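Q: Structure for this?
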Amino acid sequence: MFEILHTNGLARCGRFHTVHGTVETPVFQNVGTLAAIKGGLSAQDLEKNGCQIELSNTYHLHLRPGDKVIKDMGGLHKFMNWNKPILTDSGGFQVFSLAKLRKITEDGVSFNSHIDGRRIFMGPEESMQIQSNLASTIAMAFDECVENPAPYDYVKKSCERTYRWLCRCKIEMDRLNSMEDTINKNQLLFGINQGGTYDDLRINHMKEIAKLDLPGYAIGGLAVGETHEEMYHILDVVLPHAPENKPRYLMGVGTPSNIIEGVARGIDFFDCVMPSRNARHGFIFTWNGTINLMNQKFERDPLPIDPNCGCEACRNYSRAYIRHLFKAKELLAMRLAVIHNLYFYNELAAKIREAIETDTFEQFRQKYSPMLDERIK
Amino acid sequence: MFEILHTNGLARCGRFHTVHGTVETPVFQNVGTLAAIKGGLSAQDLEKNGCQIELSNTYHLHLRPGDKVIKDMGGLHKFMNWNKPILTDSGGFQVFSLAKLRKITEDGVSFNSHIDGRRIFMGPEESMQIQSNLASTIAMAFDECVENPAPYDYVKKSCERTYRWLCRCKIEMDRLNSMEDTINKNQLLFGINQGGTYDDLRINHMKEIAKLDLPGYAIGGLAVGETHEEMYHILDVVLPHAPENKPRYLMGVGTPSNIIEGVARGIDFFDCVMPSRNARHGFIFTWNGTINLMNQKFERDPLPIDPNCGCEACRNYSRAYIRHLFKAKELLAMRLAVIHNLYFYNELAAKIREAIETDTFEQFRQKYSPMLDERIK
């Protein structure tokens, strides 16, 4: 299911085969929270933008339009007209970051919807049932995402419960995949490593979940309060204990530099709302660093956002035009900027794969890792 | 410059040749107020959507980003990357509908910007200069647009001044077209008929402006307070006095039925924000009448918005999906709905042309004119 084609240091490039097609790794997953990409992009736009795998959010889709509506419409792929792989998160992260008045027990979590306040219960079984209704390619385990830093004892207990929840997820996923009316009977379950910033908890937890022989493993609970250095340290200590022949997914990360550094440590999958969120505020990634399109200096700039970019925005429009659209609050501004930033991230992953294949990843890293997150002077 | 290819009753189909290409008439102009179509559509989207001619607003572009910026960027065509004809209105309508504290004199109009309140003066010469900077294909004369109903004496005086302003517009446009650094030296000036709801004022004004032998004539000051019947009556009385061999443009109109009825009376050009504005609120035009996509009954509806439509939204997405996007406030909802409604209006114009060419316009009118504006039961 996962082939490693080539390694260069700890970095690897590979192919992950699914019923919805093959993903070339390392890969950046494009986030379409509510089955659409914020900024007005459709699945067809993602296709044109070089996206290989789309990520949608279980918590959000459970609330709106409801996973049963999506199941009745034939699943997420048909609903949003996207034929390539889709990963759904478990809802765990949103329950812990968006929902109000939550109460955790061994069973799961009770919380109030952030939309209408109604009381909802979600545990491992419910999360798997929702994701099965959505019929994504990859379902994520239901876990507790603890913010960093957190007390050792709390993280330890949370980790142990997350492990027990993972076992329940696996059992429920197997049951759902064998049901007659399940849309995607080949839905894959990825486990999630937790343990905060504590080396021993991270390592022990990874060793435990590795034994379950799941089709993929994620590193969760990072990019939630710790420094980049702490994040890289955790990757350094935990990845040697992750199964080598399974894809490794660093959840919710990150900047271009974070992605390069993650790959350097053996990560294969990434996702982040940063490229689309930044774009909607005029913050743009280029191969020379970042720019703010709102800047006065772009008022009469006839160049594309990035002269080295092949995206729809850069092939057709000037900085001056897109800046005008931002100032005039035209929605097209956000659309073009999001198209550009996602294209940039997809191209970043493609260039990383190429560098690994040609054994030049370290040079690539040294050239781009310090530069891509920095504002152009 | 304008060829009439075929007539069917008073309806005519023709070709209007310009330096930016040929427009097949009757035509619906797609409105891109600020050099972008509201709802997140680009010039490239218009191209795919069957749009022949785009309309932008002089008043808005003068305020943001400024017509001098657009001139420095090579004109509106280059700025927004649209190579087909562009019509710019004169700013007159917006000065009278949006601007605050306006004061009219023989010279022109002083007013406060609706954005930052700064005092601006615009008269016939300024309007022509701004439109010359924008370098549109067709510039509209600077006129006073009087709301209906208005006192006879006021409308009469306003009409006479609008005539004098038109003469000044013509002189200034000729001067600008002969200037070395003018981008489009072939810019065309259309005159605008006014006269409120008074037959004699309308007829006299049209007779006067017809003598100036302009490349096109618009009927202005309609759809600003009067009933549809009053509007049709004015068209009935004034169009026999409009030059037969020049295109006739009914400004700011209207519903699908208004367009069919306008064509039936000899109109060739239309424009209206209605299809895009309605779309942004979920109100959709179809060949069976209108629908409100927010309606609960579409929650699980797998059909496209209009099964008879070939637009990007209808080829790819269900009513259920687009309804979900509206409920979830995803920008993609507006984009898809605007694409559909503009495609519908462009197709309406195409079907009208076909009906005229095949001498079946009256049957077309009887079938569609009563139906297209009505909500489907």
